[in-house]
Structure formats: structure tokens, C-alpha cells
Amino acid sequence: MYGARELHYYGLLKQNKGFYSKYKTAFFEENNFDVLFLGSSRVEMHYNTRLFDSLTGRNSFNLSIKGATPRSSYAILKAYLSKSKAPVDLIYEIDYHFVKYESPEINDFNNYFPFLSNPVLREEFGKIDPSMKHFYYNPYYSFPYTGFKNLSTSIHGWLNIPNKTDSLYYKGYLKEVFRPSLDFNPSPKYYTWFNVTDRNYLDSIIHICKTNNTRLTLVSSPIFGGGKVDLINKEQIIRQLKNIGAINGLEYHDFSSLPFCNQRNLFVDHYHMNALGAGLFTKHFTVFFNNKRLGKPLK
């Protein structure tokens, strides 16, 4: 079983594109990116690193994972920094619509099995889900959780056959071109708040940036309808996030209500933009970044 696992992981780690290549870069390689984008799938789909680099002249990487909370974001940032140089700038996305959920699990956890040999990743993920350590040490425990898709990806790696989405990744950014535009189905209204655990892990992200002299910017990217379609207490949660920033000498910038946030053709659901939307938002964010951080307004 140990040999079978090694063969399986070898196929996965042969991937030179796609999210396995992204995780290899993040958790195994020594990097010197000067800008990191950190957060959930919204970060992965909203911050076009190719466009950002071309407009700013910076060297960025999209360090995002699906379903990331402040707790899991801290884990992947700490694992990244165990191998790589700290960035000059960290753009941390706060999903204010999602912060009331204290998730005890890691989304698509089986995708991280080959990377648990990074001891920091294993330790930090193990704090979220103790099973992660068992997955690393015991292939008899991990193999039943592997899944057909994971095995298929390994076979593609062995045969040097790319997956459908591999070419859509660039330095951690996923160019979403397959999913249809947002439909007209209504979304239920709800309240949100910052759960205690993730609030504390946000402080941990702030601390690790201060320790490494990394300039941290807190942001929230576009949400369909500016969040007002779904979230009842948006003004209160935004005020809280601004207060958190002010307490720590940071700025929080809410980009969730930009003028184009009412255009359904830019979204695949209420919280994720497609490639067209990501291009518009990245251009808008880059103008902000150039003006605010570099003092070099775009012409």
C-alpha cells in the first residue's frame, strides 16, 4: 500500500499546470514573489495575476484555496513561508458574507495528501482536522478517501495528458470560462458576524505579516448586487472590519459594491466572478494598488 501511494503521488506531482502545480509552488518550492493574494476560491477566481503583473511590473502569486477561512488561510500562509521569502505585500480577502461559519474541515482535503510532507502544512492542517496527520502516516487510512477524480488526475500525470482546466491556471489564478452566467434564481437573505475562532486567526495573519515586515491590505472583492441582495446587516459587518483594520494600523477596502457588480454576465453565482468579471475587477484593483501602494497612477 505504501508503494501504491508513492506511485499515485508521483503522478499527481508530475503535473506542471493546474492546481497541483499551484500547490507544488506554494508548499514545496522556494519562492520570491513580492505580492501574494490570499483567501478562498473568490481570490482564486477574482485576482488575475497575469494582468496584475503586466500592469504593475510586480511578481505576484495567487495563494488561495477553496473554502478558505482565516484559520485555513493562516495555515497555508505559514506553510508557504516555511519555504519561501516573505512577500512585500499581502492582499488578504475577507469574505464578510462567510465569516460567521467556523468550519471544522478542509474543503477537498484529499487534494492535499501529497503535500503533507511539508511539516508546517501538516501541523497546521492537523489543528483544523486531526485526521490530516493520520492521512500522512497511514496509507491504509488515506487511500479510501482518495476518490476517483484524484486517481484520474494521477493517471493524467503519468501519461502527460493535461486535464480540462490545467491551462486555465496561471500563478495560482483560475480563469473561469466554463460555468454559465448567473441566473435569476433568488438567494435567501441572512445576517452575518465574525465567529471568535476566525477573528483570532485574522489577528494571527496580521501578526505574521508584522513579524515579516509584509505590508498587509485587507479587502473584499465584488459580490453580485454589492452584497445588499443577500446580506441584511452589511453596513454593520463592514464597519466592524474597518474597526479591526484601524485597531491594527491597517486599511480595509470594500470593493464588493463596484458599479459593475449588478451585471449578471460577470458572475457565475452571487459570490464568484467569471474571467470577464475578474478582468474588470483586477484592472480596477490594479489602479487602486498603483495609486495607493506604488504612487504610480496608471495612464
Q: What do you see in this structure?
A:
By secondary structure, the protein is α/β, with parallel strands linked by helices. It has a single domain (2-294), classed as 3-Layer(aba) Sandwich (Rossmann fold). It has helices at residues 2-13, 18-27, 41-46, 49-56, 70-81, 119-128, 131-137, 139-142, 148-159, 196-211, 234-247, 275-294; strands at residues 35-39, 60-64, 89-93, 169-170, 173-174, 215-220, 252-254. Helix 11 (234-247) links the parallel strand 6 and strand 7 (252-254). Helix 4 runs parallel beside helix 12, helix 5 runs antiparallel to helix 6 (119-128) and helix 6 packs across helix 7 (131-137). The longest helix is centred in the last third of the chain and has 20 residues, at 275-294. The model has no long low-confidence stretch (mean pLDDT 94).
CATH H-level superfamily: SGNH hydrolase
Low-confidence stretches: none
In sequence order, what are the helices and strands, one letter per element? HHEHHEHEHHHHEEHEHEH
Radius of gyration: 19 Å
Q: So, CATH architecture? A: 3-Layer(aba) Sandwich
Number of strands: 7
Give the neighbour order of strands across the main sheet: 2-1-3-6-7
Tally of distinct domains? 1
- Name of the CATH class: Alpha Beta
What's the rounded overall pLDDT mean?
Answer: 94
What's the shape? globular
Strand content: 5-15%
Report the sheet with the most strands, covering strand number, pairing sense and barrel closure.
Answer: 5 strands, parallel
Report the total helices.
12
Q: Write down the CATH topology.
A: Rossmann fold
Structural class: alpha/beta
Distance between the termini: 59 Å
Quaternary: single chain
Question: What is the helical fraction, as a range of percent?
Answer: 40-55%
